[in-house]
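FORM 7B: Structural annotation worksheet

SECTION A. Query
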Amino acid sequence: MRGGRLERTLPAPLFPDPAPNRWRWPVAARVEPRSPGSAEQVVRVLLWVRTAGRSPWIYGVPTATEVATLSLPDLRPESVVTVLDQQRVADPSRRVLFGTTLVEEDGWTYVFGGDDGRPASRPASHAHVARVPEGGLADPAAWEYWNGSAWQTRTRPRPVLGDGRRTGVGSAFSVVRTDGTYVLFTMAAGAEGLTTVAAYWACSPTGPWHGPTEEFRPALPQGGTAAYNPQAHPELSDGGRLVLSYDVNWLETAGAAVMLSRNVSLYRPRFVTVRLGPPR
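SECTION B. Predicted structure
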């Protein structure tokens, strides 16, 4: 893509499934130095690995977080590295996948993620955060996790947001930093999580996080649909307004693929702008 015009497409799949009944979901990505201090840049893509499972794990059992490296400018896949393997965590609801959103600040990349604390009601999950020096996303030894009081390289990540009831995040949420404040957008906790976007704010990626505040309902097509995956796009924002996208899908998982193939426009992202201001 150059100047908004498509130049060529890449052969698929870029990230083939690592094993039968196991798949990779690309999430956040960024361009960074190949290694700390390097002048050469590469693309790093965070991948969620999930394994087929039964209800309530209809979207797969959380398995691992990986980082793929692609060369520039040809976007040639070079490697895929596991940075956090969660298979030894016996309870799948306590497994954490990182990469739903990235925030860059002062030479660090803050990587946010979440668990599937309540897989049947994902907006009640917990948010976690790790940090990596710029250029170190593909180095598992460079990852530091917030343990509740300090950053450590080998530790069980501790939640920075979510009580499992009134507050919490969906499996996909977004964080931006604006005027020194971190703002998190997610689907609201509880039943409203199917229709309502909530916001939290903090002065640090580790919190304390305040909210939820200023909830709003994005437009939805009629007939059994739900919103999810609110993502901020600061590169499209201007004049104090922030652009958010969100996805739409059918509430019923049975037959959803057939329904989407009949109406492909349903699954396309939708956009809304919000104005950020001091909390009230």
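SECTION C. Observations
Residues 256-262 form the longest helix (7 residues). The chain has a mean pLDDT of 88.

SECTION D. Sign-off
Analyst initials: ____
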